[in-house]
Amino acid sequence: MNLKHVLLILVLVSFVLGCISQETEESLGQSSPISDKSIIIALYSDRGADEGCVQATKNMFEWMGYTVQLVKADY
Q1: How many angstroms separate the CA atoms of 69 and 75, rounded?
Q2: Which of 16, 26, 48, 59 has the smallest set of CB atoms within 10 Å of its CB?
């Protein structure tokens, strides 16, 4: 198993544990500090930002239920 596989496994495990922790808090009536889905995420997408990374990050936040606005340098 190489380093990339180990890192991928660690990321996946931490993601799953985070989801389980959030579900446990919600079932106990507790909410996470940022539970307001009306927040708009501003994501820099101009020169120097990798297009693939911008799209992946945008998709992630939209999947989480947030609105994403792409921001250019001259915004």
Answers
A1: 11
A2: 48
Do 3 and 18 belong to one domain? Answer: yes
47-73 pLDDT, tens digit per residue, is: 888 888 889 888 988 888 888 899 888
Domain that holds residue 60: 36-75
Whether residues 53 and 26 share a domain: the answer is: no
The residue among 47, 43, 73, 46 whose CA lies nearest residue 58 is 43
Query: Using CB atoms within 10 A of its CB, is residue 54 exposed (0-12), middle (13-18) or buried (19+)?
Result: middle
pLDDT at position 40 is 84
